[in-house]
Amino acid sequence: MSDAWVLITGASSGLGVEFARLAAAEGRNVILTARRAERLEALKQELMRDNHGIEIEVIPADLSQDGAAQALWAKASAGRGIDILVNNAGLGANGFFGDPDNWPRERAEIAVNVAALSALMSAAIGPMRARGHGYILNVASTAAFMPAPRMAVYHASKAYVLSLSEAAAEELSGSGVKVCALCPGPVATEFFEQGEMEDSFLLKITRPAPADAVARAGWTGMKRGRRIVVTGVSNKVFAFLPRLLPRRVMVFAMRMVWARKG
Length: 262
Fold this sequence. Notes:
Blueprint lengths: L4 E5 L4 H12 L3 E5 L3 H13 L6 E3 L9 H10 L4 E6 L15 H29 L2 E6 L12 H20 L5 E7 L7 H4 L7 H4 L5 H13 L4 E3 L2 H8 L6 H11 L5
Parallel strand pairs: 1-2, 1-4, 2-3, 4-5, 5-6, 6-7
């Protein structure tokens, strides 16, 4: 598969690293992108040491900046076909919507989780459809299935990702291009630390899943043509609950889940 390229956003840690390892193990050339160039270079060296016989390119990018996603795609796709796009980059933060101090982080969440993901997905679909094959894996979350006070923008952004993925998958039916939304629960990554959520009640009632297992489930589901992958039995139950409980009850419960000490 030396001519097969995979573009992975958020590749400097967590699920992004695991997706890169899976792609490399299949002999696919990999384009790694994230803000932290030094981490991307370290991952590149790891994959090269494993001697997969592939090409690896590092393109540092901050997808919260205007035009960054379009510039990334232009550079990543220049002179090569991207067969798999993994939209893994994502941000989250715990705090009440409407607090002026929270808006800069929330704006960045929308820019990365919604705008950049959409721009990359839109750019990828045309060339993939022209070639008659391709995969797009969008990392959503079980957060997509319900709103949540204190995490309002994050949950809304993941609901957008799930809705867009399902709609695009249907639009692309029969084209050879597959779109999959991966919806895990908590994953053992840097997400909680970066979003200042280490003391949330959620982490007291559940144990984050290993990133490698979640990535493998999403990767396998994508290749099998599944449109939604919810990982873990408890997360499947969690994702189904909004169909059974009154929405006001569900929203109140989610406020408790994301509550923090103090």
